[in-house]
Specification:
Blueprint (H helix, E strand, L loop, with lengths): L1 E7 L2 E7 L5 H4 L7 E2 L9 E6 L11 E4 L9 E6 L2 E7 L8 E7 L4 E5 L10 H13 L5 E3 L3 E4 L3 E6 L6 H11 L4 E4 L4 E5 L2 E5 L14 E12 L4 E4 L4 H7 L10 H17 L1 E7 L3 H14 L6
Parallel strand pairs: 2-4, 4-9, 12-16, 16-18
Antiparallel strand pairs: 1-2, 1-3, 5-6, 6-7, 7-8, 8-9, 10-14, 11-12, 11-13, 14-15, 15-16, 17-18
Length: 304
């Protein structure tokens, strides 16, 4: 077996695989996150890739979910005695062509049964690793967040909202309106609590935008976007209001109380350290300018 290590949001992912698998071509978005393998360093997430079919009996498995925005009815998430099983069917939908990831209840160890036919021309592998990573790192003060993020070399601002709200559009407007900002990630950045600070990281997962940047920035504000007929900012208190604004954009499997509690702990820490706002906005430069000025004011930053 060959071993490759990746460091994402200061969480080590270790992938072991058969030499016949070209891992670099299978995971092109992971390129900038690759680090030198040192077996003395303990991995937070351990992934084994195999071309062998999954030898597992699912006849008595408990179906937890078969709803996926990404995979539609090709997806299943099931539970058996000591494991979770994540399944995604290939496009031809033959039972023999189902990808399966079998994970322990903490998602520390996962085995992914890959299909060579779609290994290099689909993102199923990257998505499954993201699933394991997103659940596991919650216990390490880290969380994936569904967000578009801009940064200026010093700090970052995260934009939340339902699909179609205009997160990516607002990021583009922000970058064109406020000098010095660039896109950090457009879909799934990671947030990590470090002492009294909250940092946000680029990851190998950025949705339809190829923005796989291995950078870390202090998270200054989180803004939930809502389409409206005029531009207005509403800052949330550091309590239930902020929690309700953030909760829809964070993910933890609700069937695992330990993992779900870890997510709530991360959220509570973020709320105490980061300003949370709701921007009612039009898709225009004035919205980005208003948002910027409000963040400068509420965080008492110098407008350089």
């Amino acid at each position: 077996m060959t071993i490759v290590d990746y460091l994402v949001a200061d969480n080590l992912i270790r992938i072991s695989f058969d030499e016949s698998i070209d891992l670099l071509n299978s995971l092109p978005s992971f390129k900038d996150f690759k680090v030198e393998t040192n077996l003395n360093n303990e991995a937070v997430v351990n992934i084994e890739l195999t071309l062998k079919a999954a030898d597992i009996n699912l006849s008595e498995a408990k179906l937890l979910s078969d709803v996926s925005i990404v995979w539609g009815d090709r997806f299943k998430f099931e539970e058996i005695t000591n494991f979770y099983v994540t399944s995604v069917e290939n496009l031809n939908s033959r039972e023999s062509d189902v990808w399966r990831m079998i994970s322990d209840k903490e998602f520390k160890e996962s085995k992914i049964h890959v299909k060579r036919a779609e290994l290099y021309d689909s993102n199923i592998l990257s998505w499954m690793i993201m699933v394991a990573f997103g659940q596991r790192v919650l216990s390490n003060n880290t969380a994936l967040i569904h967000s578009s993020v801009v940064e200026n070399g010093e700090y970052a601002v995260s934009f939340l909202g339902k699909s179609g709200t205009g997160k990516s559009t607002h990021s583009r407007l922000w970058i064109s309106t406020n000098e010095g900002f660039n896109l950090l990630n457009d879909d799934n950045p990671a947030v990590r609590i470090e002492g009294d600070d909250v940092f946000i990281y680029g990851t190998p997962w950025s949705g339809k935008t190829a923005c796989y940047i291995n950078k870390k920035r202090k998270l200054m504000s989180i803004i939930r976007l809502t389409q409206a007929k005029e531009n207005k900012m509403d800052w949330k208190n550091k309590g239930v209001e902020s929690l309700l604004a953030l909760l829809p954009s964070f993910t933890a499997i609700r069937w695992n109380q330990t993992i779900f509690s870890s997510m709530l702990s991360v959220l509570e820490n973020i709320i105490q350290r980061v300003s949370v706002g709701q921007l009612y906005c039009l898709p225009n430069p004035e919205a980005a300018e208003l948002c910027y000025n409000e963040i400068i004011k509420v965080n008492k930053l110098e407008d350089e």
